[in-house]
Specification:
It is a single chain. By secondary structure, the chain is mainly alpha-helical. Helix content is 45%, strand content 11%. The strands form two sheets. The protein has a three-stranded antiparallel sheet, with no helix packed on it. A two-stranded parallel sheet has the order 4-5. Helix 5 runs parallel beside helix 6. The longest helix is centred in the N-terminal third of the chain and has 17 residues. It starts with a helix and ends in a 6-residue tail after the last helix.
């Protein structure tokens, strides 16, 4: 892991420690399920709290407006894994490229058949010329589109 990535991870951990007291828990909502409220005012089921605390592992730009639903918390790929997967796929077609900046995009197109909220599709778009993102849920597909705009790769998806 690079020094920059380690430093960012340390910063994220420090921020998470600072936010810990700001998270408000409630015993139950009208359905009887316990919830917690994030500092941004979002009310989420308590079962998602462990995922929310690691939100920057999923999307390092989470605080810039990333949208994710309950199913997305369970299914999104960690950003480091998505980046590695995209790099490996792209390097199959351009073996000399060591970074997305060195990549000769050529005509490489990837299909993300289960894109969800866009974790893998966004990383594929940093390495590939075009990504076709497919999902059965139109709301989640719209979230993926929005998240791609946050990352600045919407034109490739």
């Amino acid at each position: 892991m690079s020094r920059k990535r380690k430093a960012n991870r340390r910063k994220t951990h420090d921020v998470q420690q600072a936010i810990e007291p700001l998270v408000k828990r409630s015993k139950s909502n009208e359905d009887g399920a316990s919830t917690f409220t994030t500092p941004q005012g979002q009310v989420l089921p308590s079962c998602l709290e462990k995922y929310w605390r690691r939100r920057h592992d999923f999307f390092h730009k989470y605080d810039e407006g990333i949208q994710i639903d309950e199913v997305g918390w369970y299914s999104v790929t960690h950003e480091v894994i998505a980046e590695d997967t995209a790099a490996r796929v792209a390097q199959l077609y351009s073996p000399t490229a060591q970074s997305s900046e060195e990549m000769d995009f050529g005509r490489l197109c990837v299909v993300d058949a289960f894109c969800g909220v866009g974790g893998n599709a966004i990383k594929f778009a940093t390495w590939c010329e075009h990504v076709i993102a497919i999902d059965i849920d139109p709301v989640r597909l719209e979230m993926a589109r929005h998240n791609a705009q946050v990352y600045g790769v919407a034109d490739r998806i």
